[in-house]
Structures are given as C-alpha cells and as structure tokens.
Amino acid sequence: MKTNALLGLFLISISFSLISCKEKTTTEPPKDTYCYEYEGKPAETIGYVEIAEMINEYEGTRGRILEASLGRKDTRENFYELDALKKYLAYLEKMSDEKDIELTGITMISAVYPNNYPGDPKERNYQTLIFAPTTKDINGRQRAFDPIYSKKGEPAYFHELLRPYLKEVRSDQKQKTPVNGKKYIVNMTTTSILVDQPSSAANRTQVSPPYPAIGLDD
C-alpha cells in the first residue's frame, strides 16, 4: 500500500511534537482555542539520505508496477494546506474533548478517487489519502475512531462504522476494461441503499499527478 512519504512524515511530526496549550500554560486559553508550543526539532524528522532511499525503494518496487498496470503514473504527492490542517486538528481536539476521548494522532489511509467522484474530474482514478482521528483502545492499540458517533469515553471505531458502506460498495462491483486492454475489478457504485452520513475523516488534498509535482521531479 502506497502512502505519500513526505506528507506522512509531516503529519506524524505534528501529531507527536505539538502539545495543546491547555497542558503547557497556567492560564486557560479562550474557549475552542487550540495552539501548540515550540519544542525544537522533532525526533521524527529524517535526513535526505533516508528520504532518497525510501523514494528510490518505492520507485523500484511499486512505482514501475503501478505505471505498467495503469498505463500512467499514479499519485506521488498529496498537498494539504497548512491552515486547513490546523483547523482540522482543532476540530478533532474539540470533538474528542467533548467526548472525553484522548486524541493520540491521525491515521492516513490509502484510497483512490472512483470513476464517479463528484469533485475534480482530473483526479478520478488517482490515489489519495484519507485522514482519520485515532485513539488507543483498552488494549493499547492505536485505532481510528469517529468522535461524531462516539459516546462519553466510548470511541466509535472507524472500521465498524465504515463496514456496512464498504459491503454495499463491494456488492456493486463491475468489470471494467482500461486503456491497456487488461480487465480488473473496480468499485462502480450506481445506486445507494444506505443513507450517507457525515464523518470526522478528511480528504480534499491536491494530488500530483495529475497536477504538477510539488516536492518531487516529474
């Protein structure tokens, strides 16, 4: 499963190195205000040699395979605006606080925009990332959850909420023939039995390709 290395490292650095003002100051910040204190360079940052090795490994073991299978390059980068990211973190902190659930980080899930994606048509069939709030369960395991449907101190876990929707989508799979003539199975949801519900997960990143690269050469 491919993930965007640079964006992943950036988000991991944020989730581990940034600490809520409410824990670090003697005065209570204004209601619904979340900020973070500088503590120096995070331990999760890495050097350019390691970055180069990781990117090279991806290109040699996955990039070429995906390009040969799809007949084009798939997404290599996901861009998320800093202001939107801060607002998203503040939203998750507030929602988690209200449910008395510790927000321990963000889980990034690899996905692909489907053929019927209602957003930018250029992004259809390109890989993307879904961000989901995460907490520890009673066994100490990190698990994605949704504070919207959680009860006080009782997380509603993401995979349990998602399961009926995945079941419906997978039951509507159809055969499709891509440009290179090879047949494969894709999700082509044409009707919906379940009523769509909002979630605390996020997406809406800028993916490259199809748009010009931001951090890597084409």
TrEMBL record:
Positions of region (Disordered): 197-218
Compositionally biased region (Polar residues): 197-208
Name of the molecule in the record: Lipoprotein
Taxonomy of the source species: Bacteria, Pseudomonadati, Bacteroidota, Flavobacteriia, Flavobacteriales
